[in-house]
Amino acid sequence: MGGATVLAERIAERRAGLGDPRELVGELRRALVLVPVDSGGLWTAEFGGVRWICAFTDEAALARFARARDAAGGDAGREAGGAWEFAELRGARLLDEIVPALGVPAGVAVDIADAEGAMAFPPVRGIVPDDVAIDIPADGPTDPPTSPPADGPTAPWEPTAGGGVR
Hints:
Number of strands: 7
Structural class: alpha+beta
Number of helices: 4
Mean pLDDT: 81
């Protein structure tokens, strides 16, 4: 299915501490993934102040998610054990078109029912467009500092809630 098997392999490599993260993002962009559809919209979940589009590398991964949801009590209006509708979308479309259209910080979570195979692609530069990345200041992109200022903290830079860098 459009590179989704390769995506699952790249996710396994990264989880093992191998491979290049940029190649993983590229693989998501090329892959066709399955996204559950509910009430005419794509299935999303809120976690950590981010809306996550739930995507799956194949029908088996989507089925594991559906079984886990059913076991947890299902969803209002959805019959337990019933068929799940889904859209097959290219990862690039999710990242470049759908994430920005949501209007809130959003990323893509892949194979979330698989404890050993899940991967999150957060709304940061290099994954989503810069204008919706949460690690870019409101006044435009800047390069992160390579070392802390001499009189500043020794902790590495990190994004703040407002999107700036501290």
